[in-house]
Design a protein that fits this description.
Strand content: 15-25%
Largest sheet: 6 strands, mixed
Number of helices: 10
Distance between the termini: 35 Å
Structural class: alpha/beta
Shape: globular
Strand order of the largest sheet: 6-7-8-3-9-10
CATH class of the largest domain: Alpha Beta
GO molecular function: ATP binding; ATP hydrolysis activity; L-isoleucine transmembrane transporter activity; L-phenylalanine transmembrane transporter activity; L-valine transmembrane transporter activity
CATH superfamily of the largest domain: P-loop containing nucleotide triphosphate hydrolases
Number of domains: 2
Oligomer: single chain
GO biological process, one term: L-valine import across plasma membrane
GO cellular component, one term: plasma membrane
Order of helices and strands: EEEHEEHEHHHHEHEHEEHH
Helix content: 25-40%
Protein name: Branched-chain amino acid transport system ATP-binding protein
Bound molecules: adenosine-5'-diphosphate, magnesium ion
Number of strands: 10
InterPro entries: AAA+_ATPase (IPR003593), ABC_AA/LPS_Transport (IPR051120), ABC_transporter-like_ATP-bd (IPR003439), BCA_ABC_TP_C (IPR032823), P-loop_NTPase (IPR027417)
Length: 256
């Protein structure tokens, strides 16, 4: 079943068309990757899906609902979570607090109940802490729960960012260059980690990545951008043998 459908999404910044007529379907349980040179419009595609930018034209349909232009927090609640190309964490807060804050999208108490710490809120807060600790344990981060986010090694910060995204209970996880700056060993570890969380949390995944081993090893389908336009889409082997792609990207790119 189609979980996400993007129909002719176009994003213009003044005179620049960053993405033009972007079409995509991600079915439940699929991993789809978006590749292409820097500046091709990949992050902009993510930004349209999560309404960081409302598309100039076109539609984003998630779970049969038109979410085009919806508030970002509502999009999160409907089940789309993302990570960022440049890690975004609350640096001075602990690992646990970082996950707790992400968890708060699901708190049902109102402002008064929260401010006065009424019983309903206290109960919810306790549940949130337990849920966050469970999540950290499942992801193997429990020993680091009281460490400051910035004190973690880079690979663990990336994992924590994914943990924060998972805390919102997504159906679809968007990963923007999750292996950026990683060495081959760390990249292999992350590949295994992504496979693991996909199964554990029943996810569909849309990923932007430059590490081709990772892209080819994980993806059911790949879409290739150049100058904001889709120049190819297909299975990993179709993409690896596509002459346009080799010329535009694979042939010239130094993988690592
Ligand atoms: N907020 C913005 N305002 C103006 N131009 C932007 C904005 N965001 C991205 N762009 C431009 O859109 C193009 C695509 O950028 P981006 O989506 O970040 O590419 P990629 O993620 O593939 O490297 C680039 O030319 C970039 O400068
Ligand atoms: Mg980008």
């Amino acid at each position: 079943m189609a979980l996400l459908k993007v129909e002719n999404a176009t994003m213009q910044f003044g005179g620049l068309t960053a993405v033009k007529d972007f079409n995509l379907q991600i079915n439940e349980g699929e991993i789809v990757s978006l590749i292409g040179p820097n500046g091709a419009g990949k992050t902009t595609a993510f930004n349209m899906i999560t309404n960081v930018y409302t598309p100039t034209k076109g539609k984003i349909i998630f779970n049969n609902t038109d979410v085009t232009g919806m508030r970002q927090d509502i999009i999160t609640q409907t089940g789309i979570a993302r990570t960022f190309q440049n890690i975004r964490l609350f640096n001075d807060l602990s690992v646990l607090d970082n996950v707790l804050i992400a968890n708060h999208v699901h708190i049902k108490s109102n402002f008064i109940e929260a401010t006065l710490k009424l019983p309903k809120y206290r109960r919810e807060e306790k549940e949130m802490i337990e849920k966050s600790l469970d999540l950290l344990e499942e992801l193997g981060l429990q020993d680091l729960r009281y460490e400051k986010a910035t004190s973690l090694p880079y690979g663990k910060q990336r994992k924590l960012e994914i943990a924060r995204a998972l805390a919102t209970n997504p159906k679809l996880l968007l990963l923007d260059e999750p292996a950026a700056g990683m060495n081959p060993t760390e990249t292999d570890e992350l590949t295994a980690f992504i496979k693991e969380i996909k199964e554990k949390f029943n996810l569909s995944i849309f990923m932007i990545e430059h590490h081709m081993n990772m892209v080819m090893g994980l993806s059911d389908k790949i879409q290739v951008f150049e100058y904001g336009i889709t120049i190819a889409e297909g299975t990993p082997s179709e993409i690896q043998n596509d002459k346009k792609v080799i010329d535009a990207y694979l042939g010239v790119s130094e993988d690592d």
